[in-house]
Amino acid sequence: MVDFDQCSCAGINLDKLIQPMILIFLAEQELHGYGLVQKIMNSPMLKGTKPDPTGVYRFLKSMEGKNLIISSWEFVDSGPPKKTYRITGEGMACMEKWITTLKIYVRSIDDLLNAADKILEASGVENSRYASETPADPSIKSANPIP
């Protein structure tokens, strides 16, 4: 039997979206790595699931190598120094490209869901698209609910 909680269909493979999340969060404000991990974890996309911090730091290092972000050390009186990250001009351009790409994905996914709904409706499955949808925030409404 398939464990759907650990299946890609449950949305557990969203690590590809970590980069645009980092760019967006750093466009809002400079952050330490730990602060980024917390913001990613608390995003609606991950629903409180903590991302692998090592993976996030790998993304940060890779993004810094591509000049999408830069870092500086913040020295404080108590505790170890902290690395603060901020977005660069190239990072802003990358974020804009991500936004365009994500909008295309949203339209494509919506088209795919509409096609699946028609198939399921034709096969007698009731309220296929939103029957089991339980958004993390009940105030969030889908853009295209099926009447």
UniProtKB/TrEMBL annotation:
Pfam families: PadR. Gene3D superfamilies: Winged helix-like DNA-binding domain superfamily/Winged helix DNA-binding domain. InterPro entries: Metal_resp_DNA-bind_regulator (IPR052509), Tscrpt_reg_PadR_N (IPR005149), WH-like_DNA-bd_sf (IPR036388), WH_DNA-bd_sf (IPR036390). Residues 127-147 are annotated as: Disordered. Signal peptide: none annotated. Residues 22-96 form the Transcription regulator PadR N-terminal domain. This is PadR family transcriptional regulator. It comes from Desulfomonile tiedjei. The lineage of its organism: Bacteria, Pseudomonadati, Thermodesulfobacteriota, Desulfomonilia, Desulfomonilales.
